[in-house]
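Incident review: delayed structure delivery

Summary: a single-chain prediction request sat in the queue longer than the usual turnaround. Root cause was a stuck worker, restarted by the on-call engineer. No data loss occurred. The affected request and its eventual output are reproduced below so the record is complete for anyone auditing the incident later.

Affected input:
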Amino acid sequence: MQTWGVYTTNEAVFDPDLQKYDPVKDQVNIYIRRTRLGVLVKKDDWISLRLVGAFDNIGHNPLAGTVGGTNNGSFPVFGLWDAVFDLKISRKSDALHVLGGYYTPIVSRESVTSAFKVSSMEKSLSQTYIRQHLTGKGPGRTTGVTLGGILFNAAHTQGIKYAFGMHNPVFTTLGAEGSRPMWAGRLVWYCGQLEGQKFQMAEPVFSATKTNILTLGTSGTYQGETYLFKSSWSGGVDMHAQWQQFSLEGEWYFLGRNSADFSNVEQTGFLRAAAYLPFREKHLLEPTVMWMFFRGSMTGFEQLEAQTLGSFSGAESTVDAGVNWHLTKQKVKIYVHYNWRLADSGALGAGAANNLYFYQPGVEAIKRGNWLGIGVNVVL
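Output delivered after worker restart:
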């Protein structure tokens, strides 16, 4: 569970009648950011079934600077997050697995990494732009099947992980042209003290020991014609490096959609650095900083065409800086972070809700403020 307290400044809401932004008073919001409840069933180390449910954003104020919808009904909604089977073809090797069910396409390191494992308070919003592009939904889940595996050299100092899948994103409707599959592929190379020791969708990420790690990945997707576009694609690279107690990770992805006479290309990514510093007995301090960016179409014609393709436009950047206090590795963490956000709506101007900075469900057009956050993670 993640529980957050957030103090937001400089928020503004657009008034369509007066065609201007009205400032929102500074405010405090205490809410449950994320909760995951799941069960993992394994049989003889060659087949497993993972079922995970989620209830997020309980008590979230839509005028807080943080992203996400609200879950503030009398009985907050609890929904399916993951439902995945993993079939290991050989009991002696991780060279070939078959995954299937409802899960995140294995594209982008950040997208497949748990929010409970990143060092920034919120995951990089590059993952949200990627997930929305691939599936039309912020959580980024869709049905599919994936073949994947991991191979090592004899000395176990290098490894390669691969994943190739077919998915069925439905976006907002299932029409006569809404059933084209999306093909997704990913390749990861490990070097040094290997980050990946067995095949899994995500990478372990957290390493407090003094070690040397290098992980380089690339992934991409392609989907044919639907009611929304003629074709859609994505591609990019990501990395994670650790030298002793210092780590650096990031990604850079391009997102494209095509109509009969127009092509729209966006780019998004992040860079995040952290250090692991011993503090008291068995405790750890982790100072960290992250920069995230999104760049889309900026001229009026291109932005209107992007809208017809269901794409974002404009530009935004976020800087997250803070300190995490790990009381128990990967189990209990207390943290304090500050987020600065800047954005440009491009030629669409005031009132445009054309990217994650300018849009909030339930409010529509806004300007997100900066925010100071205090959070607690508890994983049992």
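Verification: The helical segments are 126-135, 300-308.
Action items: add queue-age alerting; document worker restart procedure.
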